[in-house]
């Protein structure tokens, strides 16, 4: 480091250490000095003569000015002594180049960490691994504090970073520390927020570190099973069930473990407690069926036969998310047990997307009924099921609001096409102007779970997390290999486009809609 560089660096550190914070404190101390005199308000005493009053007022004024002068003098003296001390230390060269460099690096790191902790999840890419690691260490310390709000801040920060960034490459040293912290907070949570963050944090831990880790799953299964059994909060129970299914999906290599999770899910949605718990149990059930159905179709068939009646009943539930989740599970089971989906097809939609792949519903009731018998489900009327799903896809129920109707129609059109046997489902996501298609209920079920766990950070895990590639196939491999180049593709108007309501695209659409409505209102007055 050059001499001029040393001088500039010393000056910067000196200015930083002697900033106005301490001076402001001294000013506050001066204003609150115990020796400050207060002049009482009110009229003069009748027993005082004018000369006595003037003399007393003059004395009080002099005393007050002396006190204020002494306090200000002490404050100025302290400030000057600090500056002189730092200047003399600088002259004597008490700080070596190495010490100066360390101090500057520490200052820069602290500022970066403060910026990082204040930043939103979608801006994490601008920070280095060292900065992220430093911020995570600070958050991990916070999550271990005694104060509830401090623990919540730590947990929320860790979950946000884990959801938006793949950190396993540089955080292996804290691998066990994160899981132990989440378990400790969930075991004795003091608020709903702390419990939900801890349960979600465990799911994010498996997404980051848990690939094919049977020992981690063997450790977490009895813990989460006890939480599900003991907690009175349906919200925490919902998150714990989904976390348990997700941990099984990521870490377990033996499909037989999924049967235990299916039994837990079945018990929850068979005994109504809340719409949220029922929906999350159905989603976890579907995720586990993607594991069991592809490994042992006979076992999956037996379990589905036992749980079909409750799925059918839930099609009439008042909550739209429960109705959709139940119908998608039925479609998933038809797909798994008939093996009609083409898993080898490419899911990546290029610019030359074939628009002739629009699905059409042409299946006859006789073929549908034959298909129901082939599944071993002769105990119910398959035609009745198809009629119910078709009616739901039209949704003329006046009790449902417009938003719920639209959501149900979009989802049920795909379900009807799949259950009737005419077409595979097809939904697509817009990722940085690239269209990624998901054309099987297996991938759609898995996508729903990953969206719940990762929220807005799903895209970054598609790109950075290697665990996503074997789960979602060639679409993700092509996306990474292409380096996110190229242009978006025009899609099929019958496909469901999945767009995050908080994304820039959603905001852009909302702004355009407002402008269109405003212009329409203006034109109507002309």
TrEMBL record:
Start and end residues of each Interferon-related developmental regulator N-terminal domain: 112-419
Record-linked InterPro entries: ARM-type_fold, IFRD, Interferon-rel_develop_reg_N
Composition bias type Basic and acidic residues, residue spans: 80-98
Disordered: region residues: 24-98
Biased composition regions of type Low complexity, renumbered to the chain: 48-79
Pfam families xref list: IFRD
PANTHER family assigned to the protein according to its UniProt record, in alphabetical order: INTERFERON-RELATED DEVELOPMENTAL REGULATOR, INTERFERON-RELATED DEVELOPMENTAL REGULATOR 1
Protein family membership: Belongs to the IFRD family.
This protein's name: Interferon-related developmental regulator 1
Organism: Smittium culicis
